[in-house]
UniProtKB/TrEMBL annotation:
ABC transporter domain: residues covered: 18-260
InterPro entries cross-referenced by the UniProt entry: AAA+_ATPase, ABC_transporter-like_ATP-bd, ABC_transporter-like_CS, P-loop_NTPase, PstB-like
Known role: Part of the ABC transporter complex PstSACB involved in phosphate import. Responsible for energy coupling to the transport system.
NCBIfam families according to UniProt: 3a0107s01c2
Keyword Amino-acid biosynthesis among UniProt keywords: no
The keyword Transmembrane is assigned to this record: no
Gene Ontology biological process terms, A to Z: phosphate ion transmembrane transport
A GO CC annotation given for this chain: plasma membrane
Taxonomic lineage of the native organism: Bacteria, Pseudomonadati, Pseudomonadota, Alphaproteobacteria, Rhodobacterales
GO molecular function: ATP binding; ATP hydrolysis activity; phosphate transmembrane transporter activity
Protein name (Swiss-Prot/TrEMBL): Phosphate ABC transporter ATP-binding protein
Coiled coil: none
Length: 265
């Protein structure tokens, strides 16, 4: 499919939140992302799928400049959020990461209390003027992450003492506490049991009311359950992008079909 078709299929109805044009990523001599252009919609869950090593996480990390932290990574092309070039030298990556939150594969709470995990971002970005305001942000974030009831009586206990599924929801609360506009999730359920996975998936569905959510997943069932748009990557290229229902039932590219029917990957 050419770029324009892809974009046309993707931009019906909702507004574009993230616009990537001709993005290439190299790690030294490895060409990990090859001329990827895509428009990601606001208030939508977009799934990135594809075989291991196809570049899903690399592309995801371009969206909040996490690849900047990898010495050998070189990123070329243009990525805009609400029309603003996120690689403009004027953009502070720390501020950008407050606006573009990220949740990782393994829950990674800080070795701090549950309260301080969530309060960390608002504190460093000066989002609360008083203790009461900070308390309010922490409660609101924990509620949004559907974990408030489980932790409200133990806010001063360490975040690392929670179960894996609770830790991941705490990390989601931490990510939403800075009022991001985009939430990037890199296989957020891979370390969770089926019950915790279901809770996080339900949460992702609610989060899309406020955010543009982009999720990397190895599970096609999960992509089908949580996303409205799906992007299929193969060997560093974006092969196909469109409505999740279309990608899974009538893919246009034979590589997509092979992947979803289990013949590659
Ligand atoms: N930090 C790094 N240094 C060097 N090469 C890397 C680095 N991270 C990824 N790569 C390479 O870039 C390519 C894409 O990797 P990436 O992790 O983005 O793929 P992926 O689709 O997310 O894979 P998986 O599904 O296995 O997590 C691979 O060839 C990988 O080996």
């Amino acid at each position: 499919m050419n770029d324009m078709r892809r974009i046309e299929r993707a931009t019906d109805m909702k507004e574009t939140k993230i616009s990537a044009r001709h993005v290439n990523v190299h790690y030294g001599d490895t060409h990990a992302i090859k001329d990827v252009s895509v428009e990601i919609q606001d208030k939508t869950v977009t799934a990135f799928i594809g075989p291991s090593g196809c570049g899903k996480s690399t592309f995801l990390r371009c969206i909040n400049r996490m690849n900047d932290t990898i010495d050998i990574a070189r990123i070329d092309g243009d990525i805009r959020i609400d029309g603003e070039d996120i690689y403009d030298p004027k953009v502070d990556p720390v501020q950008l990461r407050a606006k573009v939150g990220m949740v990782f594969q393994k829950p990674n709470p800080f070795p701090k209390s549950i309260f301080d995990n969530v309060a960390y971002g608002p504190r460093i970005h000066g989002l609360a003027r008083t203790k009461a305001e900070l308390d309010e942000i922490v409660e609101k974030s924990l509620r949004r992450a559907a974990i408030w009831d489980e932790v409200k009586d133990r806010l001063q206990q360490p975040g690392t003492g929670l179960s894996g599924g609770q830790q991941q929801r705490l990390c989601i609360a931490r990510a939403v506490a800075t009022e991001p506009e985009v939430l990037l999730m890199d296989e957020p359920c891979s370390a969770l049991d089926p019950i915790a996975t279901a809770q996080v998936e339900e949460l992702i569905d609610e989060l899309k009311q406020n955010y543009s959510v982009v999720i990397v997943t190895h599970s096609m069932q999960q992509a089908a359950r949580v996303s409205q748009k799906t992007a299929f990557f193969h060997l560093g290229t974006l092969v196909e992008y469109g409505e999740t229902g279309d990608i899974f039932t009538k893919p246009e590219d034979s590589r997509t079909e092979s992947y979803i029917t289990g013949r590659i990957g």
